[in-house]
Amino acid sequence: MKLPRLYILICILTATGVSTAQTNFEGSFDFLGHPSSYIHLNRFSENNETGYFVFRQRYTEMIGSPYWYEGELTIATLTLNDGSVIDDVPFKYDVYTDEIIVTQPDQGEFIIDSKFFKDIRVMNNDVLHHFKKSHPDHPHKFFELLLESDVMSLFKDIDIRFNIQEIRVTGLSSEIKRFNRRTLYFIKAQDGGLKAIQLKKKDIMSLIPYHRRQLAKHYMRQHGLKYKSEADVIELFQFLIRES
Q1: How far is CA 159 from CA 2, 68, 98, 145, 216, in A?
Q2: Which pLDDT belongs to residue 85?
Q3: Which member of 19, 143, 191, 239 lies 3.0 to 4.6 Å from 155 by CB, making a disulfide possible if both were Cys?
Q4: Residue 93: CB partners within 8 Å, gap ≥ 6?
């Protein structure tokens, strides 16, 4: 359901996990032509001395990226809990701080409160990516949904760690600051059972009933698929679902 053009009230919230400096605004303003009084946004000023602005400035001094899409600004469609939709939102997902950042050119950057949203779809490199709150232990965190059916869902997260490496050469020392990233995969069964997996043959086969493993192995060999390939594992599960 598309929403009419209204004004939204900026609600200043207390951010979790990161200390944030915020600017309080009286009145209201238009956000991408959509409402509402229940979209909660944190707004940041270029004069802030703490919070996201400082983190963002420091990112330029580091190797690697804290963002899901390596720092690229992508375009997203956001769906609220009531089914209302906001299209064409400039979007970044800061995985390191676990914050979803949206931009309006004439108003600056905001962090959305994920509690009020249930679905995010992002177009990146001409591929549509789907994010949902898939993990029962993290009810407000978005994960990328790779496959969903009546019997199972496959989704992933990116774990980003900040590391400082000290290098000493002939009495001099320097620091290398970098973000290291790894992908985490999860399978959720129809009954709600959840398992973390790696893209390895042993892990993939452990998810498949014993009497269907030969069928799965034959399909992988026949089509030249690799267990360490995300796309190939998705194709395998799609095949097994069709054949069930």
Answers
A1: 34, 10, 10, 16, 29
A2: 85
A3: 143
A4: 67, 68, 69, 99, 100, 101, 131, 142
Average pLDDT for 183-202 = 92
**pLDDT of 211 strictly over 90:** yes
pLDDT confidence tier of residue 126, bands split at 50, 70 and 90 = confident
Beta-sheet strand order (sheet of 143-148): 41-43, 108-112, 99-104, 85-94, 74-80, 117-124, 127-132, 143-148, 152-169, 172-189, 194-197
Determine the Cα–Cα distance for residues 63 and 93; give it in Å rounded to an integer. 18
Cα angle at 111 between 110 and 116, to 5 degrees?
120
Chain length of the chain: 244
With CA atoms as reference, report the closest residue to 136 among 191, 67, 210. Answer: 191
> Which tens digit of pLDDT belongs to each residue from 135-146?
999 998 999 999
Q: How far apart are CA 52 and CA 109, in angstroms?
A: 10
Please determine, for residue 33, whether its predicted confidence score (pLDDT) is greater than 70: no
- Give Cβ neighbours of residue 164 (< 8 Å, ≥ 6 apart): 175, 176, 177
Contacts of 61 (CB under 8 A, 6+ apart): 177
In the chain, domain spans: 8-141, 199-244
Q: What is the mean pLDDT of the chain?
A: 77
117-124 vs 74-80, strand pairing mode: antiparallel
Distances, alpha carbon 92 to alpha carbons 67, 81, 89, 121, 179, in Å: 7, 20, 10, 12, 17
Q: Rounded to an integer, what is the distance from CA 192 to the centroid of its chain?
A: 21
Least confident of 8-17, 32-41, 140-149: 8-17
Q: How many CB atoms lie within 10 A of CB 152?
A: 17
